[in-house]
Amino acid sequence: MSDKILCDYCIKEITQNNYLAHVQKFHEENFLEIMKHIIQMNNDGYTTDEIAKKFNINESSVFKKLKDLSKNSNDIKEPLRISKWEPHDFKLEATTVWSFPDRGDWATHNGTYRGNWSPYIPRNIILRYSNEDDLVLDQFVGSGTTLVETKLLKRKGIGVDINPKAIEIAKNNVRFKKNNEYDPLIICGDARKLDFIDNNEVDLVCTHPPYANIIKYSDGIKGDLSLLDIDEFLEEIKNVAKEAIRVLKKGKYCVILIGDTRRHKHIIPLGFRVMDMFLEAGFVLKETIIKEQHNCKSTGFWYKRSIENNFLLIAHEYLFVFRKQ
Known about the structure:
Order of helices and strands: EEHHHHEHEHEHEEHEEEHEHE
CATH class of the largest domain: Alpha Beta
Number of domains: 2
Strand order of the largest sheet: 3-11-12-8-7-4-5-6
């Protein structure tokens, strides 16, 4: 049951659920002033819960009003509805097999961006291989999962992606007010050409490259590695690895997630081929982690196909932890 509060303008007792509607109906000028402040706080990165507490009104009312307004105005950003800032009962992984059936729903994390990795992965990597105030680079930032974690964990973050749409999504996902002093730098650019980063400047590289010709992230953007065939992809990954080792400090770590693919019923060991590219660039391999996949189609159509055509469904990826000597 919604709590009752006194209207600031007519002293009438109103439920929190109906407060905004009441002010809009009976105190229009005051309503417009309240909405002006609510919109400003929303655009500044405050969550709907923080806004609701500020004005002592119902959170659902704030969310609904901002959601409706943002649909009709480019000047009003999507409301941030965040129920928690960290995972429940989190513990660092301690073995070389990682499994996260729960995708993770803290902060702005969600699984709507195709191919993004579980936030448990960068959280583990960042906590294990960096310290507060360190500089963390994601060369394929996508929807910004890594940078949400750098901001939450008080690291300085840099994210790069060649797709302007991804950049827009990433910027929206990190715009929350919490730890604002750790707002990351997000740049539309090429993972193979990080000219704006000096040699030996980065403390940790933490990234999830696209897979060759699996999920296409654009309709033909020049330099989009997801559009390449396997041989072309591997050739360009060499340049990604060279840039990673150039910008990384000595003794620091570069961690990438990559998986295999299948062509004509046979496995192509893309993961190990990518690993070789990073070793050739000068890295040494510290850890090989098997990351179990939970979004593979193990029932229905694909299960039937795997039996009929005698192949196994790929249900793992590789998390390679490299070190710069």
